[in-house]
Write a structure and sequence with these properties.
Strand content: under 5%
Helix content: over 70%
Number of helices: 2
Shape: rod-shaped
Largest sheet: none
Structural class: mainly alpha
Distance between the termini: 15 Å
Number of strands: 0
Radius of gyration: 56 Å
CATH topology: Helix Hairpins
CATH architecture: Orthogonal Bundle
Length: about 270
């Protein structure tokens, strides 16, 4: 009877071990299923973030291009304003010189007119009375009249030049006003684009960080899943080995019981 009792004890212990192994296997299977569900969700979120990351990066590149174009336009406007300032300074210098020349020409003409008036009245009369030379007096008057016309023509030319300079100056001043207004508008637009660009850059960084977090979590879950699969493989192998052992023990016990029964009959 000792052999059957021993075999029975071994069988009981084997069954107890098999129960514990089965419990461990079920626990590992539940954990594996949970990890796989989480892994599936994390992978889906990572793919979604990958799409968002690409779209956000494209929008950021577009924002960079807009900021660059706006900055170039603003610098071009500033260069045009500076060029117009130089032109205005040159015009002011030329106007000042022309006004000085015009003032001198007017003074010369006034002096010439006064001299011609005095000489025309006194000189011509003196020639007529003293020497009775009408032709000399006429030549003097003709010469002064020529000088008057030349001075008057010079004054008209200077006045025309000044008028043209005034027109150009007014045109440049008007252009400068328009450019200054455009400069303010472009500066405001550039500031807005820069703020938008900064917001997009922050969004890209945020999405990138979330993407990396999900990618790392996906890798960690993948490692957990592989570890659980290896554990299940070992548990199932151990369960199969235990089942084979139980089968062997059952067969051995049956043989022992059969032998014991035969001895009892003898």
């Amino acid at each position: 009877m000792r052999a059957p009792c021993r075999l029975l004890l071994i069988a009981v212990l084997a069954l107890a071990g098999a129960g514990a192994q089965a419990q461990d296997t079920r626990k590992a299977e539940r954990q594996l299923q949970q990890v796989k569900r989480e892994l599936q969700g994390v992978a889906a979120e990572r793919r979604r973030l990958e799409g968002q990351r690409g779209e956000a990066a494209r929008e950021l590149r577009s924002a960079d291009e807009q900021v660059g174009a706006s900055d170039r336009a603003l610098r071009q406007t500033q260069a045009e304003i500076e060029a117009d300032r130089v032109r205005l300074a040159q015009l002011h210098s030329r106007q000042k010189a022309l006004r000085g020349t015009l003032s001198g020409a007017r003074e010369e003409l006034a002096s010439l007119l006064r001299a011609a008036d005095r000489q025309g009245r006194a000189g011509a009369l003196k020639s007529l009375l003293a020497r009775d030379r009408v032709e000399d007096a006429q030549r003097v008057l003709t010469y002064h009249a020529y000088l008057q016309r030349a001075r008057a023509q010079r004054i008209r030319s200077l006045t025309t030049q000044l008028a043209e300079l005034d027109r150009v100056e007014a045109e440049i001043a008007q252009r400068q006003n328009a450019l200054t207004a455009a400069q303010r508008e472009q500066a405001a637009q550039l500031a807005k684009l820069q703020r938008d660009r900064a917001a997009r850059a922050a969004l890209v960084a945020q999405i990138e960080q979330r993407y990396r977090d999900r990618a790392e979590r996906e890798k960690a879950l993948g490692r957990d899943a592989r570890s659980l699969e290896q554990l299940l493989k070992r548990l199932r192998a151990a369960a199969a080995k235990a089942a084979a052992e139980r089968k062997r023990l059952a067969a051995e016990r049956a043989r022992a019981e059969k032998a014991a029964a035969a001895r009892a009959r003898a």
